[in-house]
Structures are given as C-alpha cells and as structure tokens.
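Changelog note: in this version the structure field was regenerated for every chain. One regenerated record is shown below for reference.
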Amino acid sequence: MSELSIFLAKMLGLYFLLLGVVGLLRKEQLKEMIREIGDNSAILWTVAIVELGVGIAIITGHSIWTGWPIVISAIGWAFLAEALFYILFPQKTIKKLTRRLTRPGWYSVGVIITLALGLYLAGLGFAIL
C-alpha cells in the first residue's frame, strides 16, 4: 500500500475512533451540538467549508479505487458530498435532517458506524488487522 494510504488510514482511523468514543461518553452534549448545526448558519457554513477542504484534499491526493484504500477515497467523496449538501440545500431542510439524526435510533447507528470505521482504518493503518 502507498504511504499516503497508510497515513490517511491512521489519521482518519484515530479521528473516527475518538469521535465515536466522544459520541458514547458525551451523548447528550454531542446531540445538542448536532442540533445547533441546523439552527446556526454560521456554524453550518464553517462546518461546510472545513469539510469541503478536507474532501477536496482527500479526493485530489488519494484517488485509489482498489483494495482497502477504497474506503479512504469514499470518505473523501462523503466529506465533499456533505459539504455541498450544507452549502446547496436550504437551512430548513438541514434543520429537519439534524433533528432526525439526533433521535435515539439514528444517533446510535451513527456512533456504531463511526466506531467501526475508526477501528477498521486504525487497525489497517497501524498494521493491527
């Protein structure tokens, strides 16, 4: 595997793993922050611009569509898609979505996916898997 794939697997793996742990430990606080994204256009735009930059960086620097690095490339596209969603859709639509994502079932699924993705990527990046 390329050095970039391994570096991004380590970085994104730790990012998602830590985010998932925070999601478990600070559930109510994180749910409130998610709701605030839909309520506050300044926060929404800040998140969108950061995700746009990260998505473009991953897409342009890591366009690998074979083996496990596909996951990293797909994450780059997911960051870009989410940023464009935040930028292009009306805030009313985003507010509805953020309210839905903080419901118990959706929130729990999101935390589980985040943890699993973090474990998978960190495991590959640090050669544990």
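Spot check on this record: Helices lie at 3-25, 27-39, 41-61, 70-88, 91-101, 104-125. The chain has a mean pLDDT of 94.
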